[in-house]
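task queued by scheduler; priority normal; single chain, no ligands, no partner chains; default sampling; output format set to structure tokens
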Amino acid sequence: MNQKILKRVKRRDRIARHVITVGGVAIIFSVILILFLIARVTLPLFSGARTEQVARFPVTAAAESTALVAAGLDDYLEYPFVIDAHGMVRFYAPPGGELADKMRLQPPTAGSGIQSVERFAGLNFGVLWEDGSQTLEQVRFTTRFDEQGQRIQDRRIVRLATFPPPSGGSVMESLVRISEDGRKTQVLLLDDGSLHVRQDSETEDLFGNLEKESHAFVLSGLPDETIAALTMDRQGTTLYAGTDQGTLLRWDLSEPGEVALLDRLPAFPDRRAITALGLVFGDVSLAVGDSEGGVSTWFPVRVSSQGMHKQLQRIHTLASHNAAVKTIYPSLRDKSLISVDVEGVLHLDHMTSERHLLSIESDAPLVISSLSPDGRGLVAIDADGGAHLWRVDNPHPEISWKTLFGKVWYEGYDKPEYVWQSSAATDDFEPKMSLTPLIFGTIKGTFYAMLFAVPLAILGAIYTSQFGHPRLRGVIKPAVEIMAAIPSVIIGFLAALWFAPLLEKSIPGLFLSLAFVPLFLLVAIILWQAICRHPRLENFDRGLEFLLLAPVLVAAVFCAVKLGPVAEDAFFGGNFKLWLFGQTGVRYDARNNIIIAFALGFAVIPIIFTMAEDALSNVPNSLKAASLALGASRWQTVWRVILPSGSPGIFAGTMIGFGRAIGETMIVLMATGNTAIMDWSIFNGMRPLSSNIAVEIPEAPVGGTLYRVLFLSAVILFVMTFILNTVAELVRQRLRKKYGRF
């Protein structure tokens, strides 16, 4: 060869090698970069809460001896305020702590001071005065803008209700609530340990006249123990109490003038004292603090699957304090709650995820603390009269490895479960973002699709490459390859709107076809073996048997569909879906895994068929001829020689089809009910990771918890396909090495 041409060829080979190397490395780098960028969005999910101290200033002068009884904070962190025992409310302006405004709460009886204050539901304060009377005060911040566009917050205090002092005994603790229908409920704990309840309501008769009703009663069922903590829900319908011997009590006050003791149970085996109670956002779960520093949450759970009675049960255990818990205050934004012990250490925890988010200690013990209504600010007063103001960044408290992949006991559930439910209609809804049912749905849909596609594709490839006539092969293979060009949205559309209703009407016919098709084929093969010896059929070309079997397949399916209603009437009482639910408890969903198996399998078959057929066709003819020359039949040759030699290509095609099925979005999105359940039944739907991303991402706020969890779903999909492809390549290389000698 001419040396110049040889040098030119070698130079071009080197250039091609460098270009291919650079391109391959660039692709690998791009894939890794994409994974890094996706994973980077998910990392903040697992970061804890952070605080930034906005201000620190004194709220009491050295000469003042008036005790502070409560504190509060607005959403903008502009006007923290305190309430002292004389009823003075002072608003401060951080960061300097200058006095911005002050207002006085007018006592029902002149000269009476404040005995205690209970803060609940944002900026509502139940004020117990020294004479035993009680008022319900609400601090309101209203926002307006001046002519220059500057935001101004106006402050005022509104008295919502007033209750007179009780007729006998001194009040130790009190609670007061106003429901949405205007009913006022007051609970008093007197010095003799008795609980007195008073309910006042107004109803309108048919003529528009207001009728006032008042009910007062003393709660019964109390043990011989001292009540140490009280709390009540926002509507005043459920009352909780804890005693010094660890007994929890729950009463139903929803019916005016009637009371029912729902629970009376020991909270702890060692009978430790209950020192603090608080209701978590939503008023379903009860947070309990004890004398050993423990914090746990409880909510009612059905005692038996048959009955409707619910009993309090401890569900979550949060991070413990080193001393007795003094107060518990919930966030009004999520299921987080603040607990403070007697040593002045503050904890911020999330109930459902059981994450300990934050601990705060100061030089002087914290005695009063309060979250802003939106949960983004925290104000605390220490024992030296100093105010601490923090900005709280707590973006994803409900996320943990357990809530993402483990069973979680959510409010309203009878046991821990895997649940995906990102939104609901109520403000106190708790997002449930378990990825386990989505991963299960991905695997389930892929499994049934591959169960349908792999046998058809591989057997079709075997017949086409080894048994079919060359002319038939020239028609079948291009036709199957054209199937791969059909858009997945078209397949999903046809599966959802055409195939699903058709299958729902003839589901018994489907099961009959599973029996009729092999039976008809077996009978046809036996008949063919008998008649193929006829002289007129001796010249029938081999490889065209499919043309004779196609009508048999059509006849088998036709008979199954026609006999389906007869079988349904005979064996299922005329309604298969009703029989299925009555006998097994399984519901038949119109868009189920049978639909997915056919639709997704239809999309996967061309990939597996093409690669398997190419692998089998590329086996050297010398191997096939040698096997036949030694006396092996055509099928023995395929089974013992052709299939092992082509197994690397067949396996590679199967794995590529498997990867296609895992990542498919539009077909499963349109053809299944998108129900995130964990059930292997073919009659139920599922929600895989890919379609979940497509459904949820339009409604996910950028940077929010749902947004980042969806990116985590993408990372999991990436990792699943990476592991799958890696294992597939290792197995393919091993098969290639094993059968490469052929």
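post-processing summary
- The chain has 14 helices and 30 strands.
- Residues 179 and 430 are 23 Å apart (CA to CA).
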